[in-house]
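Homework help board

Subject: predicted structure for assignment chain

Our instructor gave us this sequence and asked us to write out the predicted structure in token form, then describe one feature. I got the tokens but I'm not sure how to describe them. Can anyone check?
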Amino acid sequence: MARPRIKDVARHAGVSEKTVSNVINDYTHVSDRTRRLVQESIAQLGYRVNLAGRHLRKGRTGIIALVVPELDVPYFAELARHVVREAGERSLTVLIHQSGADREHELAALAGFGSDFVDGVILSPLALTADDLRERAGAPPTVLLGELLEEGADHVAIDNELAAREATAHLIALGRRSVLAVGGRDDVGLGTAEARTRGYRAALDEAGIPYHPSALLPVASFRMSDGAAAVEAALDRGTRPDALLCFNDQLALGALRALHERGVRVPEEVAVIGFDDVEGGRFSVPTLSTVAPDKAAVARTAVQLLQRRIDEASGSPSDGGPVSEVLSPQDRVVAHRLVLRESTEGRSRAM
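My token output:
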């Protein structure tokens, strides 16, 4: 049996092909009665929208790329789920690519992988530089997540400096005075770790607690093994913290393990807080206090902004309306909150 076409739906519903197209594209000027008739005909005939044809008529593929450093890091896996859902709402397909935090892979993503099969890129960079962004003439529209490499680039993230300051201030409010920053770095720069370090130092300063560079525990990567190794090394040096601000939940979970193996009680002796609110932290023993970014909002904002940039680049808006004025580079800040669990409170609550 031949696949039903728009003209078959139009004949069945007793309307024009243009009206069927308007219903499919969700244009608002169709009456409720007509919309219902067309939708019933679509359901009865089993008509399916030819998304490939629709996109190609607009000079697009309908494919966007999500590029993250590592797919097996829970934060990126959870974020990818939200991006796929948001893209699906706009009839977009998501190509998920792992960069391995390798500059060449990130440059390839920035260039659209050297072909025209992606309309735009959502990229979480770790190895790129600001110069790389300035030299991407002819590249597809790109929205950055996490690292802010260039003030003039489209970017979506939480306020990392504020979040770290709030988390550190909470630890201090618990009476903790020796707070180490696991994953901390020199606070000069636009990266996520640098911003969180600035927030950490600001909270210490506000509380009148002297800052010592030795309180930053650098890590090679942000995995559980790195968190455990950093804490073990600090304890071996004779450092005796009473709190740990970990720059992601993976580091914090590793830190919890290292403290447990050394017989250090959490939170009685050392309070621990992470970043990202990944699922594993809700089931650790003790459960993990964390800074929870609104991951759904990060994904929604990034996809919406990328869709806008794709519309601008093609001159053909996805909503069928006129092309509006070009947006200046956007730096969108998404909400976060502190989720306080057993690793700091001995119980759970949200702020």
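Reply (TA_rk): Your tokens look well-formed. For the description, you could write something like this. The longest strand covers residues 63-68. That's the kind of observation they're looking for.
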